[in-house]
Amino acid sequence: MKDFKGKVAxxxxxxxxxxxxxxxxxxxxxxxxxxxxxxxxxxxxxxxxVAEIGAEVLSIKVDVTEFxxxxxxxxxxxxxxxxxDLFFNNAGVVVPGLLTTPNMPTYHMTKHANVxxxxxxxxxxxxxxxxxxxxxxxPGYIQTDLDNCDLRRPERFKIDNNEPYYSSVEYKAGLERAxxxxxxGIPIDSVGMSVFKAIEEEQFYILTHPKYNQIIGDRVKTIxxxxxxxVFSFLK
Length: 236
Description:
Blueprint: E1 8-12, H1 17-28, E2 32-37, H2 40-53, E3 57-61, H3 67-81, E4 86-88, H4 105-127, E5 136-138, H5 169-183, H6 189-200, E6 205-207, H7 213-224, H8 231-234
Parallel strand pairs: 1-2, 1-4, 2-3, 5-6
Helix pairs in contact: 1-2, 1-6
């Protein structure tokens, strides 16, 4: 896609971080926006911001883990704008979808699943000759408030602070590490531009941190060489 003006972008997770950055960039490119997030208070603030830029905006409170709410998002989008030109499934795909580190097995499982799903759907679209193009965004650490996402969890996913793990030294150390790497990540303002540039170039894998390329390459080489994963080599 080369021309964005007057087209419609749907962005989930639009109230914070990457979703917010994508909304601003889309508005600056003249797009109309459908913004979705579970945090409706902050979503309305983003709506005001992009409306001032000139976008026509529809904001909807959506919990993307609820099928009926996602379906309603689609229905309302078509009812309002009649089409969708860009859909940002902004569900936290990050560079751990392309590599693996210690201590986060469940986290990595979900990220690898997101990348695999995107690849498989992309192959299927090519197979049937569809004009729909896909990209998968795999960023490294970016300056967002991702480390505060527990505050916005749906009630059924809230952390049980009575669980011993959440008062453990290991958990607290992990939180401190998360705070540090996010606060020292790349500026959020660069994200929107890089994503839209990749979309213009029909680029499937969108990476933000060249320093991870070697790690990703080493992982693939380890697999092809028939070697076992070695945590000590990884941590060098």
